Amino acid sequence: MAVMKKGNFSIDIGFLKLGADFEESDRQCAWELYTELATRIAVTGKSKDRDCTDFSGEVYAESLTSLHTFFGEARKIMRQFPVCSTYVKPRKLFGIRTGAGIENHLGALIHRAMRDVLRPFLETWQADYRFWWESTSDKTLPPFERQKAYPKLNDMISQWSDVRAIMRAIQDELVSMYKLVDVTKLSS
Length: 188
Known about the structure:
Blueprint: E1 3-6, E2 9-12, H1 24-38, H2 41-44, H3 60-80, E3 91-93, E4 96-98, H4 106-136, H5 143-148, H6 153-178
Antiparallel strand pairs: 1-2, 3-4
């Protein structure tokens, strides 16, 4: 399995085909997930920022809302494209031994991303930052100046960069495995 570890977060981003070609519903599920990933800077960062460390121009309170909204959209995609109970014979995928069963279905990957990456980050930072933003921060400052005063800013941004790097890796894997057009790489 392809395990990616970044900072405090670790996720198995492996998934496999259930036959020679993907079913159309698999591709549709992949495209819907890719669309949510590729269009949310809060989730994968700016497309030209390969390190996922550029937070310029973002109001963190709004970006946290977008990240939380992505969580809900990912749930909808899981409901729309359920994991079947098809048994898959163990094999190697890209030189990596994959297990049998549903743990490698795209829906299971979405679940792991939510459980192992997004939820821990949101549980750690969303309420704390929002409380500070709404109750403690200096509301007389412009938003960009105001958010710089968050006492735990460096830790939050560091972990958020890790989340973005993992979610970007999932996005890139979707493009590769499902042969999707990577709209983030199209010239303007």
